[in-house]
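User: Okay, second chain of the day. Same drill as before: sequence in, structure tokens out.
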Amino acid sequence: MSKGLIHHIELYVSDLKKTVDFWGWFLKDLGYTSFQEWENGQSWKIDQTYIVFVQAEDRFLDIPYHRCRVGLNHLAFYANSRQHVDEMTDKLQDRGINILYPEKHPFAGGENHYAVYFEDPDRIKVELVAPDY
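Assistant: Same drill. Structure tokens below.
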């Protein structure tokens, strides 16, 4: 293993079914494969890194997630190319997923940053960014 690489990320979610429906196709498109599945969670893996989604207990659902509070702001993934970003943008729109910053898309991150920004069912911001070249 390479020192310093992320081993895994675990996120608690408000509705596991909605989360699995949302993330499953997206992660598969990026090359992840289904890794683990149990009653209250599911994960996907790419190489040696995996991302886990776990159903939060009802007693913790009273305060919803907000990316501007202390904690995680967003997750960013590499696309293969600008064309991949464009293709994914079309897929997101076909699924009725709201594209963030539409007036600046695909340069919402700056003139040299080609990406699409959107939100998962819990409003966690997700970014798919083209490599610089």
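The radius of gyration is 15 Å.

User: Thanks, on to the next one.
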